[in-house]
Specification:
This protein is of the alpha/beta class and 355 residues long. Helix content is 51%, strand content 15%. The protein is globular, with a radius of gyration of 26 Å.
Amino acid sequence: MDNVKYVGMDVHQHTILVAVLDACGRLVMESIIETQAATILQFIHGLKGRLCVTFEEGTYSAWLYDLLSPHAAKVVVCDPRKNALLKVGSKSDRIDARKLAELLRAGLVSPVYHGDRSMRTLKELARCYLTLTRDTTRTMNRLKALYRSRGIRCAGRQVYRLRDRGEWLEQLRERGACRRAERLYQQLDFLQVLRQGARRDLLIESRKHSATGVLRRIPFLGPIRVALLAAIVETPHRFRTKRQFWAYIGLALETHISGEYRVIAGQLERSGKTLALRGLNPSHNHDLKNIFKSAATQASLRPGPLRELFMAKVAHGIRPALARLTLARKLAAITLTIWKKGDFYDSERLKSSAA
């Protein structure tokens, strides 16, 4: 253990500031190196001993992880949102690099999962599809905002239809507003073509992975949701329990308690204080949450065991929104189990739960 070195990297576009600590926490070296593969590897090869390296998740994290993994005993890409120590006191690149090394040495970094390269193509295609979907939604919202700002009601999807656009444009009396709407329509048409192409590429690539065949057995997880799920999660074995999976999705309840234990007659006992609930955990994967929430919404509307489970919750006085949240958790738990074990979906188990 005396030969272990902890390397903290504060990564930027042109330079990386590196701090190296020994096993006792003493600063061994500080250096500024260029953000180039050859320079980084030359620096790493110059360090002797067992190397543990950390840097924050960002633009360069995937590239750095692939570059350094063969040359270091341990590479940890850490979550910048959870590095509270970096926000305390003075801040500079040198201080940040040293604090990252200190956090790694103390085992206080929260790692961000980086899988193998076999899923990289699917992940990139999923990002492409999701980005184009967001851009399409943003353009559609801008169109409606343009009409609403002129007092023109535009509920529904008629405002986007090609055959109805002339009537909508005639309602815009200002020449500039009309021209702007025309440009937004052109942008929307172009984005929809790109989105359909990205959707096709994503589905073709997803069929190459065995996980998607397993996940398609689950109701209300269509081909696109399955492809996105496989790309985002990569492997279900990252999560030991369904509660860990719920937290990653954003379906876990945050609880807080203080003074949980007390000593009575020399024996340690729980104090019996109630947990304070603070809602769902805010740190989560938003795309994954949308997948399960939309699937739960569909399941609550269509006949079947999942709808029966939803109606049973509502009948017990649970608000429909919370009942759908319970349904989303149920779907997530089913997904994790089937994905891990490769089982078939069994609707009879859900029927007994609903009863």
